[in-house]
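Give me the fold.
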Amino acid sequence: MKFDELYLSGAILDAIDAMHFENCTPIQEKTIPLITEGRDLIAVAQTGTGKTAAYLLPVIDEIAMGDYPQDAINCIVMAPTRELAQQIDQQMQGFAYYMPVNSVAIYGGTDGQTFEQQKKGLKLGADIVIATPGRLIAHISMGYVDLSKVSFLILDEADRMLDMGFYDDIMQIVKLLPKERQTLLFSATMPPKIKMLAQNILRDPAEVKLSVSKPADKIDQSAYVLYETQKLPVLRHVFRNFKNSKSIVFASSKLKCKELGKTLRGMNLPVGEMHSDLDQNQREDMLLAFKSGKKKILVATDIMARGIDIDDIDLVVNYDVPHECEDYVHRVGRTARAEKDGVAITFVAEKEIVKFKAIERFIGKEIRKNEVPSDLGDTPDYNVSSSSGKGRNKKKNKSGKKGKPEARKEEKPGEQSENKSEGKREEKKEGANKRKNKRNKKVEKSAENAVQSPDSKDVKDLDAPKNTKEKKEKKEQKDQKASEPPVSQSQIRAAMAAEAARADAEERARLIAAAEARRAAAPEDGAQASKPAAPKGQAAGAESPKPKKRRYSRRKKASPAEAPSAGSSPSTALPEPAAGKPE
């Protein structure tokens, strides 16, 4: 179907003709009539099928020809990334070139001047606001954004927005919109969370589904099964076959993206990088260089897998197998866009075989396997599990030598269990025999020692039976304890009190006996023992001087009145002699 067969105005058809578009894509052919009827819509189609034009063309035509306010926001288009928001804004400017409809792109990672331009566009009321959810909420929180007159809400790449955690932001924005509006939801996949979102924000929507999660038919898909160390030589081989082709090489992480870009630049290839460590200006410059052909090869992470509309990409190389099956579809969808042909090549390392088989089941197609150049050596076997570690040309048997692996007989589940049980019984029997032989050797050795030295006490009779009497006594004690009834807490307390009373009585008796022994040993007349003799130089009956105490504190200085007389002792003065008697 051609665009002039749709119910679009002449001005927008002139813009379409100026952009060299003639025929509608299937998604455009099925969705544009439904949108012009005013119905809510859920459209699911793979990337590169023209979904952006499918919703922009009828909405621009409706706003230009309808009775909508000129100083208010009439439409909001939400996108998951700033790159996609910029791309939608660029297409918007081309489609509305002959129409009195303006737009503003709202996204983060900009400077203060760009933020002020965004603020001005929201205040004046741009007809169409193309925004990422987070940055739009940042402007709404400042109080100058009026969404009360919005008539159209469009969610592009809705599944990716939900994957990035924008569900709450989307619902916060939806609460500010009028209930009477037209809502359009476009997605590449249809997971359950998209259905839940549709139930909350859409009213009786029409559904359009085209080849969900399958690459375009014009993509020539193939793969190389190789070891990790062979990826770079094979990539060099691929670029020799695709000279001067615009190519994207997808890596699993930004670290590998940087390393791979550095290595390819060392091979004198025009290589650029695209990953999350680049700021907004660097991303824009890199995309411009890639689109213009200044950079023929772009090494990128999955941020380039969606929302980047570059029509002339000839080759996509998956340097690593993507973690999710849907990511594979989005990656290879960068080529064969706008009804063109393209090539997608995937490098499958030994550990990635399981993931790649899941991708083949997901898309319902077996992807062709290319032969690795023979000078690069052996390669893994795709039909063998990656955990086995066996290659196509390098197989080992149990002995560790190269050669044909030993043939194994196929056994039924019942036979396998019987063989296992028989093997366990044989192992137990062998162990018992070993222990018996060891014991017999010890018995023989001890017998020899006994013959040589019969009086030795160190020789043990290993044939003597064990002491069963002790075992019997221990068993009886154990049984007796088990037969006794359990002791309660009150009984335990009573036993403890009785034990304490018994200990007190014994102590009291011991003290009484000691006192009686002391009284019996004392003299009957009660005379006291004689005192020890006085020291030499001291009168008998004179009181002996007290021993001096050692002082550790500083002595107080005595006053003049209390000072001792000359010749007197510093500690104690001697008694004065009696009057009239010589000393």
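Residues 25 and 50 are 7 Å apart (CA to CA).
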